[in-house]
Amino acid sequence: MNLRRVVVTGLGALTPLGNTVPEYERNLLIGVSGAAPITKFDAEKFKTRFACEVKDYDPINYFDRKEARKMDPGTQYGLVACDEAIADSQMDLEKLNLDRIGVIWGSGIGGLKTFQDEVVNFSEGDGTPRFNPFFIPKMIADITAGHISIKYGFRGPNFVTVSACASATNALIDAFTYIRTGRSDVMISGGSEAAVTEAGIGGFNAMKALSERNDAPETASRPFDKDRNGFVLGEGAGAIVLEEYEHAKARGAKIYAEFLGGGMSADAHHITAPHPDGTGASLVMKSALQDANLQPEAIDYINVHGTSTPLGDISETLAIQKVFGDHAYQLNISSTKSMTGHLLGAAGAIEAIASVVALKNQTVPPTINHFTDDERFDPNLNFTFNKAQERKIDVALSNTFGFGGHNASIIFGKPKE
């Protein structure tokens, strides 16, 4: 099959670091932490009382009140990010074949707040089943893709991928595949999540997955630091317009990057813990390189999964050294989760955007909050600690790994004629 080239022509983001791509980009590169005490509910009795929330967000600024009540916050976040990405792409939808434009979205959980609120309301009632008629369509994980297609009239492929923290990356890979195999011209892809709720914080606390550094939330996410003690929960959305190269060129679109390839694998090891040897992580990076027809030496920057957990950071680093060998010491590695927290099913979307930002600016965003070296990591690896680093970046790779052993990696390159 003659595979078509796929490029990035639009970006949208609603994140703990900013509610637009320019705000997100600026704060990524100067190393801002998005962590702060939780404002969405009273977290006083929780072991973790902070998160990376979206800030200064009022749905009434984006939706009328009646419309907003029909959508879970996760869906709202996704639509806001898509609006920015589509506007950024400067597509004239009246001139395009909407049958050839689709939406593939990612979400690890779906409408968690909606589900929680409806169950609480029922349990606190008199037993009479009184549920919001929008309960089910607000809760189901696929609904964001549906809302996007309805709003814009996109009649192409439309679905949501669910693979925990790899969801948005899997969505991007599927969208990429639909375009390069000739089945679509444009795909809107990315992911959204809104899990900063009592159930979200409480559930991850019960697993002992979250940092409990309540005295200093802004320094709690510490990937690769000796004193890392869990991830920081985040929320938000990232949206990317993917387009067939000739289609984009014909309409004079600006091109941010080329989507070069993607890989997927499974750890086949444990429901939550990574494989200690990084076996699945190694496989997925090799698969992405093979799909992109690249040698390991072509990669300049890796936006790692890097959640700030004791086991995960080690296994991913072992995998990088296994795949890249001596070239690992020429790479820049960074975890932007040190700033954004972990957006679960949306993580792959905002980290793909961070990778594109790195290519655009020829600057690697930092891994902030590094205070103490961990002797278990090779000191000759460049984790881009605490400060962004300017360097030549032609190709960037982004990793996401999810509960269940789901692994996905994608590769972006500087645009070429």
From TrEMBL:
<dbReference type="InterPro" id="IPR014030">
    <property type="entry name" value="Ketoacyl_synth_N"/>
</dbReference>
<keyword id="KW-0443">Lipid metabolism</keyword>
<dbReference type="Pfam" id="PF00109">
    <property type="entry name" value="ketoacyl-synt"/>
</dbReference>
<protein>
    <recommendedName>
        <fullName>3-oxoacyl-[acyl-carrier-protein] synthase 2</fullName>
        <ecNumber>2.3.1.179</ecNumber>
    </recommendedName>
</protein>
<dbReference type="InterPro" id="IPR014031">
    <property type="entry name" value="Ketoacyl_synth_C"/>
</dbReference>
<keyword id="KW-0276">Fatty acid metabolism</keyword>
<keyword id="KW-0012">Acyltransferase</keyword>
<comment type="pathway">
    <text>Lipid metabolism; fatty acid biosynthesis.</text>
</comment>
<keyword id="KW-0444">Lipid biosynthesis</keyword>
<keyword id="KW-0808">Transferase</keyword>
<dbReference type="InterPro" id="IPR000794">
    <property type="entry name" value="Beta-ketoacyl_synthase"/>
</dbReference>
<keyword id="KW-0275">Fatty acid biosynthesis</keyword>
<dbReference type="InterPro" id="IPR016039">
    <property type="entry name" value="Thiolase-like"/>
</dbReference>
<dbReference type="Pfam" id="PF02801">
    <property type="entry name" value="Ketoacyl-synt_C"/>
</dbReference>
<comment type="function">
    <text>Involved in the type II fatty acid elongation cycle. Catalyzes the elongation of a wide range of acyl-ACP by the addition of two carbons from malonyl-ACP to an acyl acceptor. Can efficiently catalyze the conversion of palmitoleoyl-ACP (cis-hexadec-9-enoyl-ACP) to cis-vaccenoyl-ACP (cis-octadec-11-enoyl-ACP), an essential step in the thermal regulation of fatty acid composition.</text>
</comment>
<comment type="similarity">
    <text>Belongs to the thiolase-like superfamily. Beta-ketoacyl-ACP synthases family.</text>
</comment>
<feature type="domain" description="Ketosynthase family 3 (KS3)">
    <location>
        <begin position="3"/>
        <end position="414"/>
    </location>
</feature>
<dbReference type="InterPro" id="IPR018201">
    <property type="entry name" value="Ketoacyl_synth_AS"/>
</dbReference>
<dbReference type="GO" id="GO:0004315">
    <property type="term" value="F:3-oxoacyl-[acyl-carrier-protein] synthase activity"/>
</dbReference>
<dbReference type="InterPro" id="IPR020841">
    <property type="entry name" value="PKS_Beta-ketoAc_synthase_dom"/>
</dbReference>
<dbReference type="InterPro" id="IPR017568">
    <property type="entry name" value="3-oxoacyl-ACP_synth-2"/>
</dbReference>
